[in-house]
Specification:
alpha+beta; nine-stranded antiparallel β-sheet; six-stranded antiparallel β-sheet; 26% strand
Length: 456
């Protein structure tokens, strides 16, 4: 704040902070609270119950027993996270959620070359095996678990927290996505070969970005007011050749209904209500609308890119993971199976569920031209307006960016170089991006979930 002649002058972000502090407006209801990694955490460790027969384990999955020698790292792997519902949280790329982690918004991508090279695929021993599998949808950041890394757990991506304000009125994130096949096995094998005295083997060491064959994907989030969220992703092709890219923003509910602690009437839902709009319903959050805008053309045809809205349930795929039986046909990994494998039956034809996404396919011709970009815009709102006004949308984002500039300038009004000012701003923004939702109720974790324990 600034005082002139004993009068207080607040910038816009300071006004929002004051309103939130006085509880006149809840500016911090939504923020960058979604975790960047939920897999391989102790809260999601069910290694004790995996010693039971498969049928009993399938019934107990999601319950917690006191355990000995639990191995959280290998029990819930990065690969498992694609198909298995989390009990205590969610994760995603550039993720935003409410302060209780109920409704989540994040981005996924596919470059038509991604492949996963490991998974825990033996339901008898639950040991980690290296295998060559099919391409897959990039829904979360990749990293090494504690036993895999020569210095312990370590993320193996190139992502940057560029900007964030205390009320999360403006957020900016950069994800550098290789156009080559992601070097999963190389990262795993080389780090396993190195000892503690050696440097870590990073993504930039693998040659994944050689020749500038990568995407700079800038993701911006702005609040029009405390409950109106605007999202814009701009993906720049830094290479010298055209390349395809699929941008798939997700909106989904954390699974709170499978553990026997909520009545069936409280299960939330998402359903398509118009070609470019889905409606979400939650007994605590109320109704909201996931509203999309077509993306500008990337070819000479001049045709806008129309997203396809897709739906499934945020439920574990027992058949894929453990050879078991699913209680219903639409499960968590449906979008991967549709987009990558072409499995049309994976998604719900009734366009409803607890997990939704918008599939923007920038693959016309050879894809996005070199040094050109693909743009995706959508909003999550309490208002349904029938269409998204792109000009107003961009104006709001730019206004929030300018307000962020003013706020951070006031933090450090003394003269300093632009580089030093930017370093400080990104450092503060990184702390705000890492202010993530952590859900944990000890007695439920220790004593187990009643519905599933009774089934066992």
């Amino acid at each position: 704040m600034v005082f002139v002649d004993q009068h207080e002058y607040l910038c816009e972000e300071e006004k929002r902070l004051k309103e939130d502090r006085e509880r006149s407006r809840y500016w911090k209801r939504w923020g960058s609270y979604l975790a960047e990694r939920q897999w391989a955490t102790v809260r999601e460790d069910y290694s004790y119950v995996t010693k039971l027969p498969l049928k009993t384990f399938q019934s107990c999955l999601g319950s917690h027993h006191p355990r000995e020698n639990g191995d959280a790292w290998s029990h819930f792997t990065h690969d498992d996270a694609r198909s298995r519902a989390f009990r205590w949280g969610e994760d995603g790329i550039a993720g935003v959620c409410d302060s209780h982690g109920l409704l989540n918004i994040a981005f996924s991508f596919w470059n038509e070359k991604e492949s996963v090279l490991y998974r825990c695929n033996s339901h008898n021993s639950f040991h980690l095996e290296l295998t060559t599998c099919s391409d897959f949808l990039k829904e979360r950041l990749f990293g090494l678990s504690n036993p895999q890394g020569n210095h312990g757990e370590s993320i193996k991506e190139a992502h940057f927290h560029l900007d964030n304000t205390p009320t999360h009125s403006y957020m900016k994130y950069l994800y550098k996505y290789p156009q080559r096949r992601f070097p999963y096995q190389d990262l795993i094998s080389e780090n396993a070969r190195r000892g503690k005295a050696d440097k870590e083997y990073q993504l930039t060491d693998t040659g994944a970005f050689d020749g500038n064959k990568y995407w700079d994907i800038f993701i911006e989030v702005a609040k029009e007011d405390e409950d109106e969220l605007l999202f814009r992703a701009t993906a720049w092709n830094r290479g010298q050749e055209p390349a395809p890219l699929h941008i798939v923003p997700h909106v989904w509910f954390r699974n709170t209904w499978s553990w026997g602690r909520e009545s069936a009437s409280k299960k939330p839902s998402l359903r398509q209500m118009a070609p470019l709009t889905a409606q979400s319903k939650h007994w605590k959050l109320g109704d909201r609308f996931f509203q999309l805008s077509p993306s500008p053309a990337i070819s000479n045809s001049g045709q806008d890119i129309q997203p396809q809205m897709i739906f499934t349930e945020n439920e574990t795929n027992y058949r894929s993971l453990y050879g078991g039986t699913n209680s219903q046909p639409y499960v968590k990994d449906a979008f991967h199976r549709l987009i990558v494998n072409g499995e049309r039956g994976a998604i719900n034809p009734r366009c409803s569920g607890t997990k939704s996404a918008a599939w923007f396919a920038f693959d016309e011709g050879d894809g996005v031209a070199p040094q050109d970009c693909a743009v995706v815009r959508f909003r999550v709102s309490k208002k349904y307006e029938g269409y998204l006004d792109e000009e107003h949308f961009d104006d709001v984002i730019e206004q929030r960016r300018r307000e962020a500039d003013e706020f951070f300038w006031r933090i450090s009004p003394l003269p300093m170089t632009d580089d030093l000012r930017n370093i400080q701003r990104q450092a503060l923004s990184g702390m705000l991006w890492c202010k993530q939702h952590y859900h944990f109720i000890w007695d439920q974790w220790a004593n187990g979930d009643p519905g599933l324990l009774q089934q066992a």
